[in-house]
Amino acid sequence: MKSQVVVAITFVFLIIAVIVTVNMFAEEKIDTSNNNESEITSIHMGMNMFMPKQVTIEPDTTVLWWTHDREIHNVVGIFKTYSGEEIAIFSGDIPPKADWSYTFEESGVFEYTCGYHETQGMKGKLVVN
Ligand SMILES: [Cu+2]
């Protein structure tokens, strides 16, 4: 039957269209990953610790804190810039499996704690240089 041939050809063209579309998106993904204009540093929170405890980053770096245990944590402290500014930073609650990020534009030092686990020693230090 002719109609069966038409259906088969249409089907083949559809599959080719899907493959081409998927490849286009795959290439787009590779392009964006090569574009590293903004840096991201991640700090894990778990077992009443920030890991790593001390991190040195460059200005304009985004720091991502994420929780990998079953507790709620937060990030609280004052970012003291070398230009003399004091910026109070508070993440609010960061629940399990969630994250929170902040971009440090200026150079300075950020000493912070987790408000829930400060007495257990959950403290961190970030140097922006
Ligand atoms: Cu905590």
Summarize the structure.
With 129 residues, this protein is of the alpha+beta class. The chain is built from one helix and nine strands, in the order H-E-E-E-E-E-E-E-E-E. Copper (II) ion (CU) binds next to loops.
Query: Looking at the structure, what is the overall shape?
Result: elongated
Largest sheet: 5 strands, mixed
Bound small molecules, which ones? copper (II) ion
| CATH homologous superfamily assignment | Cupredoxins -  blue copper proteins
What is the second-level CATH architecture?
A: Sandwich
What structural class results from the helix and strand content?
A: alpha+beta
Q: How many structural domains?
A: 1
SSE order, as H and E?
Answer: HEEEEEEEEE
- What is the C-alpha radius of gyration, as a whole number of Å? 24 Å
User: What is the overall number of helices?
Assistant: 1
Q: Assembly state here?
A: single chain
Number of strands: 9
- CATH structural fold name: Immunoglobulin-like
Strand content: 35-45%
How are the strands of the biggest sheet laid out side by side? 3-9-8-5-6
Poorly predicted ranges: 27-35
Write the SSE topology.
Layout: H1 2-34, E1 39-46, E2 49-51, E3 54-57, E4 61-67, E5 76-81, E6 86-90, E7 99-104, E8 108-113, E9 123-128
Parallel strand pairs: 1-4, 3-9
Antiparallel strand pairs: 1-2, 4-7, 5-6, 5-8, 8-9
The structure holds copper (II) ion.
